[in-house]
Write a structure and sequence with these properties.
With 311 residues, the chain is of the alpha/beta class. It folds into two domains: 145 residues, Aspartate/ornithine carbamoyltransferase (Rossmann fold); 133 residues, Aspartate/ornithine carbamoyltransferase (Rossmann fold, 3-Layer(aba) Sandwich). 36% of the residues lie in helices and 15% in strands. It has ten helices and ten strands. The strands form two sheets. The protein has a five-stranded parallel sheet with strand order 1-5-4-2-3, with helices on both faces. Strands 8-7-6-9-10 form a five-stranded parallel sheet. It starts with a strand and ends with a helix. The mean pLDDT is 92. The structure holds phosphoric acid mono(formamide)ester (CP).
Length: 311
Amino acid sequence: MMPAGLLGIEELERSEIEAILNRAKDFQPLENQSFKRLDLLRGKMIVNLFFEASTRTRTSFEIAAKRLGADAISITAAGSSVSKGESLVDTLNTLAAMRPDAIVMRHSASGAPHFLARHLPRTPIINAGDGTHEHPTQALLDARTILDRKPTLEGLRVAIIGDIAHSRVARSNIYLLSKFGAEIVLCGPASLLPAGLACMAPGVRLTYDIREAIRDADVVMMLRVQLERQHEAAFPAGEYFQFYGLRLEHLDLIKPDALVMHPGPINRGREISSEVADSQRSVILNQVENGVAVRMAVLERILTSHAETAH
Ligand code: CP
């Protein structure tokens, strides 16, 4: 049984992750076909509450809800009464009074969706990224994208490179990939790669050398340097690309069928070169496409299981 929402990958069973990934496959459109509109969540109201910028996650949650026949509205901090000084609790109480069936929340504070879930125990809360903690649907769509091209996650060598310290995407991926027996190599400058991350999950190791990290990798996940979460730049911008940017010459080191991934938004010329981002190895836009199918699977699972338990 799923909890009444989705707050993180850490607390999910492997079987729950598999169920979401399998269901997402049903929702993937066939080649050259658009998504079908379904009626599975007709009458449901989903509120997307985004206190932080987003293009991919917010749009794909909204599209996913609408494809399932639900109504979806998106609220951003800038366009809401938060900008007039309303507190988080008052904003949540106001939204709860309108009886949404689920709230999708992104917030710059780690733990904000967990606070929301405690405050509104009868409303399923979906974490769309909280601070530096987790971004569960990103890890799910990343896994779906890998499994569209590889038979299993078990034994895959996955290199995650960049600003690991501030990355909720890295944390959710580490939890997910380790549950499935992948070998995970984390790489970045020491200032962005805390040594304690090696103890986060089985199968994780650290290196500060990008060449060592990507050698014979099956998957290379590049991460953006999150300047907005750093009080001062941890690494000079020009040098970052020289030492940790993924460039064409690196592709000779990874396996011939290796995938290059990035959750976006990408910063060309900072963590990845344009040539690599646009290369045959890159599945960056496939990740975006899978965001809709995976979020459809998550919304269906949460809203239908919540409806069953509510009666
Ligand atoms: N990957 C991701 O979360 O992108 P957005 O910030 O655009 O939602």
